[in-house]
Design goal:
This is Adenylate kinase. The protein contains nine helices and eight strands. By secondary structure, the chain is an alpha/beta fold. Bound molecules: adenosine monophosphate.
Length: 210
């Protein structure tokens, strides 16, 4: 099954991507994680992306389209994949169509702006393995340390309150129109993501079968 997870930053796409990945044994592909990895490794692409990411802006379409084009050719995508954070603009969605990639389902996780701001301010991430935590809702066993790989957890620069507002604005202006794009194809399912993670997961799993 080829899936897209849509939703504002902090809506819980990454967490749901992990759950679906476990259930269906298909890879979760996060352009945000791939860009952060490139930044941490100091690659040319990482350096190029850094100023956009730190400012809460979108990285240019051609960069992320290039990343996805290459990633989807990997052998582990043969039986399906979950895209988390791509596409984020109409041209990115059109690029997927032009690549001949068939999308079976698009799950849109809906969360209010107020809730998003609270979630992002408490989010902590592991830059080494990409695992995410929340100081209140999903705390690591040891404060500040990644359960999965033992590396130090940090707050993303773009999760700071002033940048979060820019990211939400970008989301509403550039990414939300994708809902209509995929609704018109009859493959959009909207999931309420406001409450407990387990409830959102149950709704997401249901939406995969509808
Ligand atoms: P995320 O971890 O998905 O919230 O992504 C973090 C940041 O990476 C975003 O705020 C953008 O700056 C950049 N980014 C990730 N995915 C994309 C994309 N599909 N298009 C443009 N920029 C992206």
């Amino acid at each position: 099954m080829n899936l897209i997870l849509l939703g504002a930053p902090g809506a819980g796409k990454g967490t749901q991507a992990e759950k679906i990945c476990e259930k269906l044994s298909i890879p979760a592909i996060s352009t945000g994680n791939m860009l952060r990895e490139a930044m941490a490794n100091g690659t040319e692409m990482g350096l190029k992306a850094k100023s956009f990411i730190d400012a809460g802006k979108l990285v240019p379409d051609e960069v992320v389209i290039g990343i996805i084009r290459e990633r989807l050719q990997a052998a582990d995508c043969k039986n399906g994949f979950i895209l988390d954070g791509f596409p984020r603009t109409i041209p990115q969605a059109e690029a997927l169509d032009e690549m001949g990639v068939r999308i079976d389902r698009v799950i849109d996780i809906e969360v209010s702006n107020e809730k998003i701001a609270a979630r992002l301010s408490g989010r902590r991430v592991c830059l080494k393995c990409g695992a995410t935590y929340h100081v209140e809702y999903k705390a690591p066993k040891t404060e500040g340390v990644c359960d999965a790989c033992g590396d130090t957890l940090v707050q993303r620069k773009d999760d700071m309150p002033e940048t979060v507002l820019d990211r939400l604005k970008t989301y509403h202006e550039q990414t939300e129109p994708l809902k209509d794009y995929y609704a018109a194809k009859g493959i959009l399912r909207v999931v309420e993501g406001q409450e407990a993670v387990a409830d959102t997961t149950a709704r997401t799993m249901q939406a995969l079968e509808d």
